[in-house]
Specification:
The chain is an alpha+beta fold and 132 residues long. It has one domain. The protein is built from five helices and nine strands; from the N terminus they run E-E-E-E-E-E-H-E-H-E-E-H-H-H. The strands form four sheets. Strands 6-5-7 form a three-stranded antiparallel sheet. The radius of gyration is 15 Å and the shape is globular. The C terminus is likely disordered.
């Protein structure tokens, strides 16, 4: 049986829950201090072609070399599947930004360095029907 997940893009937190026989347990995310949190910050940090998300973006938020976007929810408010975002001097489709942010951390370690590889490995496409 496929796992069903719900993602709440909050202004200050992103929370993920799984549907499990009428229960909706929250997913845990490891934070930099080694604690498991039931949320992660909706932050995106950009420095040239390098992008960091969530807790990794949190760690560079005081560094002037990084451009920080504080809320993916605010970016999504007026966005559609073909919306292009200007992120600190580079342009990126919003659907790719969301896909990259929600990818496992090991898949994001080289974010921005291998655009073609990310497109080939992503299973999320703008034309996918979310009701499947």
């Amino acid at each position: 049986m496929p796992m069903r997940l719900g993602i709440d893009f909050g202004t200050t937190r992103i929370v993920v829950a799984a549907a499990d026989r009428g229960n909706y347990p929250l997913a845990g995310f490891e934070s930099p201090d080694g604690q498991t949190r039931e949320w992660f910050p909706p932050l995106v940090a950009i420095n040239g072609s390098e992008r960091r998300y969530g807790w990794n973006a949190w760690q560079v938020q005081g560094d002037r070399q990084w451009t920080l976007l504080r809320s993916l929810k605010r970016l999504l408010k007026r966005a559609g599947p073909t919306t292009q975002l200007d992120l600190g001097g580079c342009t990126m489709p919003v659907i790719e930004l969301a896909t990259e942010m929600l990818s496992p951390p090991q898949a994001r370690e080289t974010a921005g360095a291998a655009e073609d590889q990310r497109r080939k490995s992503s299973s999320l496409r703008a034309s996918d029907d979310p009701r499947r």
